[in-house]
């Protein structure tokens, strides 16, 4: 399938004859060249320089994230006495994974025992007016225990709540005013991130090789001053995501930490650096409202000397940090280079055809151009 | 690189002359037009309307999933007395992540102490016929403890099991008949999902902005009646995946909850909705058999007044819910529009060439068409 | 857009006339054919046979991983007496997920109580020379508790450490020499992996259907002898990643287990097999140094008869196994077949044009070829 070579010779490369056409119809000629140049610019500037079309790329990054939070804190809530919080208590789970929850507030209910008490009035399904509203053995929906069949109420005509068998006393619903663990703002998280591009056998860590132990013991991440320090202040992370730590600490939330590795391996090992981005994930831009937070409950179980079980229930609020690693590496390879040059040439051809179409059928003075073109062709053909 | 313009003029656009060809050879002409129309249909119908080729797309969705399970349950196993299960007990891990395990059955072994007892007969490596079969200090493979060097057997000739040092009494192997926590079928899970398409700065949640707190307290997901309620009954989820909750609860299993966000951002914020799909993941279609379930063990440790440690071992069976979020958003952008129009035109050209090839070399009466074509060409050329 | 058909006829398919050109200019002709053949080879060999261009592919694999570790172990550290480690103790988290940590070493600090003691001398921020260095109520950065305002030191001029309120006694910093749980090398992990390609409705498990229970009780993965046994010895996994288990066990590390499913569904169900790859993830190839390991702390809380809380703190070192599942399935589909044939033909055309360009402008003896070409063309045209 050979494209007509004469036409190629005449219109695209034979500058002498073309100049004659341009002389006759400058606008047509200029447009023609502009389109050709912009296509060439697209191929060289965009495909080769910006998109690095001469490189083989690898998107499937292998990554390992190990995190470690440091900091201790003393809380002294009225009911339950002093409580010391170390990372083994406020980081959940403790095993230093890439998703970690930092407790920033809590409601403690100590010394719960299995027994009988009244359901919370806040639980809709637990309200009752007579004993028949509390069928025995049926659990209260979204409640704290199983109904015993009795309705507990202050006086005859009021609405009461069902008696339940469950962990008593039940958790008091409390209005939270300040985050009890607000000082976690100053705690630090050390993020060790190892990556590997298996196709290129390239591996690197976000901890600089040149950074000694002493640097790691004192440095703190800062986008400008210390971009390669892997230790982050929790308050700074929240701040960089555009929110306030103390606001978020009250009811909890979710923050995404994105580590991006865009590596041009042609430039050498030391030019491959991580880039950190912080975003609040549980945020609804349109509603202009922050979601109602992040909390869950867990319990510590104990046995008294008699062998009876009691427990301490904790409802904890906090911030979940979700570390995600993305990456892309590129390295020169002959195959994509050839393919891109080839498809570039094909595009040039298609562009050239497109130009002809435009010039022949859409320009006002196209008749002249058409005539000249055939004239030229005939000169050679006949 | 100009494609020969005369040929273009003559064969593809000069309708008058072409009509003549069609008159002479209708079949060839019709096929020619059919192919051209189907290419045009492909470009407009498929590339632009179906695949939305005029849009820039974003596939890397940022997502945050927070889950909360509600429901309490009382079990009363013969050996261990009443036990109240709240979400803090039957959901593992408790921190409301996107992968959560719901306990549906369990075997409890209370009051284990470190000591000496016989290995289970079910453990192959623990069987013995004489003391030499039980080398002291060696752990039983897949067993419960470390051999003490003694072989315990009922009488001289029978096969016994090694004495071990471990947590005694060892767990009794039990045949499970009913799921003890089968009532979890009626429990609900609230899935809060926040997504963000960073390229477009678009964020949304699966909880409707218009949905008040009261709606969320009473609604239940239903594909038809309540497609935007983020609260799911566990039994419904399993049912929608095509399985039975009570069957699955006995030995456990794994369910995938897929949340898909396919958003056409040209249509506006309110047209971007999540779609939920439920699949059983631990299922082997060909073998027509469900795997042997999902279980694991954990222990609660206690100390008696004398400071000795004892523990309660729990082997729990249950269903793991794995919430995955996928998404794709598209928005009008001039660059993909231009690229798609360009490659569409190029394809039209290639298609045209293909037609010529077919017509010239593969059709029976192609000779006539070929003659006509050159005839036309010569008319202009000479 | 019809490409000039005469040129097609003359240069690419009219072998007779071409032979004449070749006779005149063999080098040019051979190069021409070589390029054409290599393009044809690329399309048939690469696009169709190697890349299977006739198949529709599915990359979004649905996967479920359930893991189970087996093995028990007795440690007898000097301070704390014998300790039996079962999977419920050394696997964290216990719920058999796709990311699991195996404890291989630990430092135990039993019987910690809230009280007053001296901060560790290793904590830089805890050192002091006078009481004013220890502001009351302020937590020691990266330390173990909250300062009380007193500076404890041996004599007047030495550097001491602040007194803290925290869990006392504080953890002793110990130099680790051998991994206390080094025997975990012989423990096994059973990896159940279920996959699904939703587009094709194809699901499979890495456990062979033909494998009976007895096979699974005795087999052990081996790349050659037992490639389909899903039970792996931990020591073998580390070995296959190119490292030594005992070295890694001392301070911990991170291993990636990649399960790849490349399935050609045209070949049938039984030809779709998983392939396992093992890599050490926390490894920095250039620095030639292994990172400083993987450890974290957790605590078990107890209450004594008087209701006072005490705890056992464990600093555990270990190996994290990160199981990742990748997959790609292909099945014959008419649409990609047509698209690939079409773009193949277009590429042939572009290649042909490229050849002409090369021959006309870059070869030395191109003048002859150019002349012959036009000669041929004229023969037909006039």
Automatic annotation (TrEMBL), chains A, B, C:
Its main location: membrane. The chain crosses the membrane at residues 30-49, 341-363. InterPro entries: P2X_extracellular_dom_sf, P2X_purnocptor, P2X_receptor, P2X_RECEPTOR_CS. One of its GO terms (cellular component) is postsynapse. Keywords: ATP-binding, Cell membrane, Disulfide bond, Glycoprotein, Ion channel, Ion transport, Ligand-gated ion channel, Membrane, Nucleotide-binding, Receptor, Transmembrane, Transmembrane helix, Transport. It is found in: Cell membrane; Membrane. GO terms for biological process: calcium ion transmembrane transport; response to ATP. It holds the Pfam family P2X_receptor. It is a multi-pass membrane protein. Glycans are attached at residue 186. Disulfide bonds join 117-168, 128-151, 134-162, 219-229, 263-272. Gene3D superfamilies: atp-gated p2x4 ion channel (1.10.287.940), atp-gated p2x4 ion channel domain (2.60.490.10). One of its GO terms (molecular function) is extracellularly ATP-gated monoatomic cation channel activity. ATP binds at residues 68-70, 188, 295-297, 315. It catalyses: Ca(2+)(in) = Ca(2+)(out); Na(+)(in) = Na(+)(out). Belongs to the P2X receptor family. Receptor for ATP that acts as a ligand-gated ion channel. This is P2X purinoceptor. It comes from Astyanax mexicanus (Blind cave fish).
């Amino acid at each position: 399938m050979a494209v007509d070579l004469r036409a190629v010779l005449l219109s695209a490369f034979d500058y002498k004859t073309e100049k004659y056409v341009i002389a006759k119809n400058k606008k047509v000629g200029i447009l023609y060249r502009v389109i050709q140049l912009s296509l060439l610019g697209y191929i060289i500037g965009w495909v080769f320089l910006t998109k690095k079309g001469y490189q083989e790329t690898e998107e499937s990054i292998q990554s390992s994230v190990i995190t470690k939070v440091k900091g201790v804190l003393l809380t002294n809530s009225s009911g339950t006495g002093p409580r010391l919080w170390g990372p083994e208590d406020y980081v959940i789970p403790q095993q230093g994974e890439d998703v970690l929850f930092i407790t920033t507030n809590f409601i403690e209910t100590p010394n719960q025992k299995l027994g009988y008490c009244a359901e919370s009035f806040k639980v809709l399904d637990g309200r009752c007016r007579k004993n028949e509203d509390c069928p025995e053995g049926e659990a209260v929906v979204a409640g704290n225990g199983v109904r015993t069949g009795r309705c507990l109420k202050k006086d005859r005509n009021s609405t009461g709540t069902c008696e339940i068998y469950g962990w008593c006393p039940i958790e008091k619903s409390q209005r939270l005013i300040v985050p009890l663990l607000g000082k976690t703002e100053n705690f630090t998280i050390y993020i060790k991130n190892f990556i590997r591009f298996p196709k290129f056998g390239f591996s690197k860590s976000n901890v600089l090789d040149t950074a000694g132990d002493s640097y790691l013991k004192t440095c703190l991440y800062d986008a400008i001053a210390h971009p390669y320090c892997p230790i982050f202040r929790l308050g700074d992370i929240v701040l960089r995501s555009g929110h306030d730590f103390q606001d978020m600490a009250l009811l909890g939330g979710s923050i995404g930490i994105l580590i991006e590795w865009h590596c041009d391996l042609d430039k050498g090992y030391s030019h491959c650096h991580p880039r950190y981005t912080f975003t609040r994930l549980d945020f609804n831009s349109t509603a202009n409202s922050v979601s109602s937070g992040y909390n869950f409950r867990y319990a510590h179980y104990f046995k008294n000397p008699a062998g009876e079980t009691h427990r301490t229930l904790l409802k904890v609020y906090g911030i979940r940090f979700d570390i995600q690693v993305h990456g892309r590496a590129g390295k020169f390879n002959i195959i994509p280079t050839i393919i891109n040059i080839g498809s570039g040439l094909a595009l040039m051809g298609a562009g050239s055809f497109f130009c002809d179409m435009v010039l022949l059928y859409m320009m006002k003075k196209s008749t002249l151009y058409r005539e000249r073109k055939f004239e030229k062709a005939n000169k050679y053909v006949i």
